[in-house]
Amino acid sequence: MIERIAIIGMGTMGPGMAARLARGGLQVSAYDVAPAAIERAQAMQGMAEGVLDSLGIAATGAGSVRFTDDIAVAVSGADLVIENVPEKIEIKAEVYRQIDGLVSAETIVASDTSGIPITQLQAHISNPARFVGMHWSNPPHIIPMIEVIAGEQTAPETVHTIRDFIRSLGLLPVVVKKDVPGFVENRVLYALLREVVDLVERGVIEPEDVDTCVSWGIGYKLAVVGPMALLDMAGLDIYNSVSTFLNADLADRKDVAPMVGQKIAAGTLGLKSGEGIYSYTPERITELQRERARKLVAIRRILEGTD
Ligand SMILES: NC(=O)C1=CN([C@@H]2O[C@H](COP(=O)(O)OP(=O)(O)OC[C@H]3O[C@@H](n4cnc5c(N)ncnc54)[C@H](O)[C@@H]3O)[C@@H](O)[C@H]2O)C=CC1
Ligand SMILES: Cc1ncc(C(=O)O)c(C(=O)O)c1O
């Protein structure tokens, strides 16, 4: 039974995850190596709780989030540790080395990796049978789908425990059957992102217009009709006809588009640096976060039939 959870890494994903798990009645310990990240995560709890209220997610039991700057305190007695540090194998491996001697043989260690194969990650931990991929989607307190991925050495019961645990929280587990890079969600997303970056780079369309095209075209529709169901809605004959001339013309570069490297070299990373594809003032960032949360909540409530 999972009751005590440690989250290692309180950056973009950790704070919302902590709030959502606490709302499910869990005792959450939240740790980060950077004191500023802990402070920011503490400050964000109120906002995340407000969003959970507006989603109509009632508290099940007396869950809590306790912040600590000591990893040993964080993982002590944990039934589940969720590693949530940057997407670099060496950083994740160092965390596994640190927690290895601190957790029990029963503790499940899960990684929120966006797509590093679980088989590669579990090579760095002494109990790989209890190691599993648990890939949340951003913002994690709002998006209900979580991918569950086994590596070659993950025990089937570890996958079942995490899948059932996610379900018990009222969330939607999707078990990915093969440990492919990017799993499923990010393979689909990155196929789309490669194409839109290529279209903008080639001057086919402006960034604002591609956002309108995707959000109000396929994006809006896909929230209601999944891509496999969409094939039936359009007709497989249409898909076949379009694919015969279009597939050969789609972006297929193996490296990352130069536009992205140029922006990173200029220090323009997106919201976190105030400029990326678009420019943002600090006020606009706060406004956007509120507006996006409000709209995602409204759409989710409609899709769930609660509004
Ligand atoms: N940002 C996103 O949209 C999503 C990210 N992910 C994945 O989740 C993981 C975390 O991503 P983000 O939250 O975006 O990263 P982030 O860079 O925003 O935050 C990572 C946090 O880890 C902390 N950290 C670094 N080394 C540490 C260590 N040794 N011990 C403890 N804390 C440490 C950093 O101080 C930072 O606060 C990555 O694997 C990422 O690929 C998964 C889903 C969505
Ligand atoms: C750009 C990007 N990359 C990775 C992820 C992820 O799920 O790991 C996301 C996300 O939205 O969650 C993302 O937007």
Automatic annotation (TrEMBL):
Keyword field: NAD, Oxidoreductase
3-hydroxyacyl-CoA dehydrogenase C-terminal domain mapped to chain residues: 182-280
Residues holding NAD(+): 9-14, 32, 87, 92, 114, 138, 272
Record site: Important for catalytic activity: 135
GO MF, one annotated term: oxidoreductase activity, acting on the CH-OH group of donors, NAD or NADP as acceptor
Occurrences of domain 3-hydroxyacyl-CoA dehydrogenase NAD binding (ranges): 5-179
Transmembrane segments: none
InterPro entries linked: 3-Hydroxyacyl-CoA_DH-like, 3-OHacyl-CoA_DH, 3-OHacyl-CoA_DH_CS, 3-OHacyl-CoA_DH_NAD-bd, 3HC_DH_C, 6-PGluconate_DH-like_C_sf, 6PGD_dom2, NAD(P)-bd_dom_sf
Name the record gives this protein: 3-hydroxyacyl-CoA dehydrogenase family protein
